[in-house]
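Bench notes, afternoon.
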Amino acid sequence: MSGSRRKFIKNIGSTAALLGISQLSALANDKEQTEILQPAKRVSPNDKIRIAGIGMGIMGFGDVETALKVPGVELVGVADLYDGHLIRSKEVFGPKIYTTRDYRELLKRKDIDAVIIATPDHWHDTIAIDAMEAGKAVYCEKPMVQQIAEGHKVIEAQKRTKAVFQVGSQRVSSVALAEARKRYLAGEIGQLNVVEARMDRHSALGAWQYSIPPDASPSTIDFDTFLKDTAKIPFDPVRFFRWRNYQAYGTGIPGDLFVHLITGLHFITGSLGPESIYASGNLVQWKDGRDVPDTVVAIFNYPETQIHPAFQMTLRVNFADGSGGGEYTRFIGTEGVIELGWNDFKVIKHKLPQAPGYGGWDTFRTFPTAQQAKFVQDYNAKYPESTRNGSQYSNNYAAPKGYDDRLEHFTNFFESMRTGKPVIEDAVFGLRAAGPALLANESYFSKKIVNWDPVKMQVI
């Protein structure tokens, strides 16, 4: 190991151990090692926080189960429009919890301090604002809102009520993303110029064809309330359980998946957002009645600011990926790249030599013999041997085995409630991430470039 690399590893403040990690092993050679990142130690709380879950689907159950792992957190009740979700909640969390179809019943209760909103996207803003005005802290699943205008209303409500409000893109609380941010800000990859990411799938469940319970019916589901202010249609269990497939209730690929990638980008770089968005795609395989595409590619142009250079981000999601799916996110700079996993990442540094080189696929071989000799003589005089070799090395970083960034995100949320410490992802951050994702949808359907003011968070 060279002295410079030894010094580099020694100076990394979060080193705990050097081990091999499976997620990065495919990227690493036998000589590479992985630094295990340690999350901050938490002080055990003395006070109880009582929560309620609103929307007990896939994310609702997952969020509540994770939140209850935080010491001092108790579940009081849940709300959902499907009776089966309420029955299942009692089976999982105990028969004593309060259950209701009407989320407003939970907001009236004095023994509830915070709510977790994991409903379909078109309900996020209304429930979040109602909850904050009722004096509750709010953990709202991503994307924060379905429409840009709704985001500004949520921001205004948070400022007015002073409520603790966190958006549920848990990745920003990851110890791995925090370390990646440190590496980026330290200039590890030089000047950022391109970000590229893909998140591809090849399964029915991955394409949102979620299971529908046998008892789904107008008597077990409050379908009219689910519809909210969208077009009134006859009962349709497919729309209720597979709502992500429809523009009326969800936000498609950009709102479900792009928003994760945009959130991580903004956290690492400190960016406020892009100035233009263009998206294209198609409905390739999942022609099941949905009115959103299953394949989307979007280009986001980020302007130069005082804290980062101009760069371009390209995001792709393909639900018809015959290779089996997979994902990556790469921050590409002039001297290296950060390759993100979920709770791990890799920094690959590649510095060009000072000397440009000659020969190979080059004009050198087309010179007359005498000119080749003269060129070599001049080259050797201008570029000493020490300037002719570049350098390349890589370092791996990963959270400890069993680490859960969603648990970390909830821990941050409850810590904010207890201490007044700012949340990781407030309503403004949430709209800065959701806005470009929602505009990818607008660009796709309008077939036009959409211009965005990332400071004012408005379409231009």
